[in-house]
Amino acid sequence: MRGLEGKVAIVAGAAPGNIGAATAVRLAEEDAAVVVADLNISAAQSVVDEIRELDGRAAARAFDISDEASYKELIDFTVKEFGRLDGLFNVAADLSPRTLEHDADVMSIALDVWQHTIDVTLTGYMFGIRHALPIMIDQGSGAIVNTMSTSVWMGEDRRVAYQAAKAGLYGLTRHTATVGGKHGVRCNSVAPGVILTGAALENTTEEWRNEILATVRSNRLGVPEDLAAMVAFLFSDDGAYVNGQTIVVDGGANFT
Q1: Is 162 a catalytic residue?
Q2: Can you give the pTM of this predicted structure?
Q3: pLDDT given at position 209
Q4: Active-site residue, from 71, 125, 162, 170
Q5: What's the mean pLDDT in 43-52?
């Protein structure tokens, strides 16, 4: 892939087995330096250890995406450590059972669950963009990718906060693409369908996965590496003329 050599990227939300980790590894394989960030520093360090075993360049940082000061510190560290910032991948989300199980319908969701989900999955992404975009504009180049979800178009009868937060990223992405575009900074979103992350494999049955596969216009379900490849493309020079788009990566489950 052209144009990732020597670039510096942050993956905001990376733990072993998830989309962020796969993306951090893929970017390092393409010769980018990667700052691997997660609420759990041990998880981030595990990803960095994997990258270094492949002779890649990486550093681990703990951060809380819902805390603006924490996100700014992450970005400041990256620029101080590596001298620049070329890519930001917002992928963090609270998918813990304690949150998802209480993310109910609009009539019954508790306000603290609603607010927490918005704080992490929408406002937190804005924090990263707020502090990364000026740096990229000054450089005259950069790329930001936000993680949406195909649930935005499905109209599920539960997880109202998650759907609302992800739908909000549609506007945030396009706004950022407009503000940054004339300065050489692009912003896009990826919208995964069912992806067999480590957590998904642990928390679903083979029967359920087969039922989902029957609805997909592909012969398999997605894996984190599928998203990693798309993010790497969007960060690369090969994706230089893609801006303001939401790219669905779901094996053809949804036609939008």
Answers
A1: yes
A2: 0.96
A3: 95
A4: 162
A5: 98
